[in-house]
Design goal:
The complex is a heterodimer of chains A (129) and B (146).
Chain A lengths: L5 H6 L7 H28 L5 H8 L2 H29 L3 H30 L6
Helix pairs in contact in A: 2-4, 4-5
Chain B lengths: L19 H33 L1 H12 L8 H36 L6 H30 L1
Helix pairs in contact in B: 1-2, 1-3, 1-4, 3-4
Classes of the chains: A mainly alpha (129), B mainly alpha (146).
The complex binds protoporphyrin IX containing FE (2 copies).
Amino acid sequence: MGRGTSLGRVRGLGSAHAGPHHWWMQRVTAAGNLLLLIWFVVSLARLPVLDHQAVVLWLKSPLAAVPLLLLVISVFWHLRLGLQVFIEDYVHEAGGKVACLLLLNAYVVVAAALCLFSILKIAFGGVPA
Amino acid sequence: MAHNPARPLSPHLSIWKWGPHMLVSILHRATGTALAIGGGLIFTWWLTAAAISPAAYAIFYHWIVDADPSSAHEGAQALVGLLARLVGVALSWSFFQHMASGVRHLMLDTGAGYELKVNRLGAILTIVFSIVATLVFWAVILGKGN
Ligand code: HEM
Ligand code: HEM
């Protein structure tokens, strides 16, 4: 038979069995962040200057644009999972919790979309250096 | 009974003693949240400005990287420049601390490092790493400016 108290089973309010996947993806994206962010910090440090021209020329190379695209996906996925736990730990009232989680998802989707589009626009030559 | 100070304290909800592992635990959360909001917004601003135009990038550069001392309102400008530097130092330290305590998390997940002394040493090492890495990072950046 299933787990939990008999009342919980009757109500069907037991574990949703969705926790391990959240936990695991937090770890997978943590490993992705570690590799990609070390690459990113080293790459920026190796650019002689950080002005507009330097950044645009750098991002025209597929070997810069593609890792940066992957970095955006890994970091925003990771921080979405992380802030979800943060909110669930501290916002207990149902209405406030739903509002915070919606705001979090909106932030992540909008910011990640802006980043991905911007990288692609520069990489495909849409921004004159 | 005689009190032995070497024995661990029972985790009563309101009676506990600070240790490095607790500090690192809450720092992982605080730095992760700071990076997620502050770091995420600045990073998005940087890329979006680069994709819009050199003028939009100049605004980002001016506020975040380096305030142009020759511009108007010098007093306010210097203050903003100082604040930007403070945020920069705080975020870079947050990054190194979160990275180190994150790697520690991944090692603890394998079941390793729970012995009291090893656990304590690991927690202290993350803090040592984040301070040293932040100092080196800014030495490199400020060295470049000259
Ligand atoms: C440098 C590579 C990184 C590693 C190795 C790493 C590792 C981790 C790990 C293992 C966790 C899970 C902790 C737990 O289960 O309690 C975590 C949580 C989190 N991470 Fe990261 N992370 C990294 C980068 C980042 C970045 C760049 C951000 C934000 C932009 C971030 C934001 C967060 C947040 C908000 C949490 C949730 C904290 C909590 O619930 O207490 N992480 N990180
Ligand atoms: C009476 C002492 C304490 C007890 C009984 C306690 C208990 C717990 C428990 C059961 C968890 C969940 C464990 C898990 O997620 O694996 C937890 C997580 C946590 N605790 Fe505590 N705790 C105590 C003190 C502290 C202190 C002093 C701090 C820091 C100020 C702290 C910060 C945290 C944080 C940030 C988490 C989330 C951990 C993570 O996801 O990595 N705790 N605590």
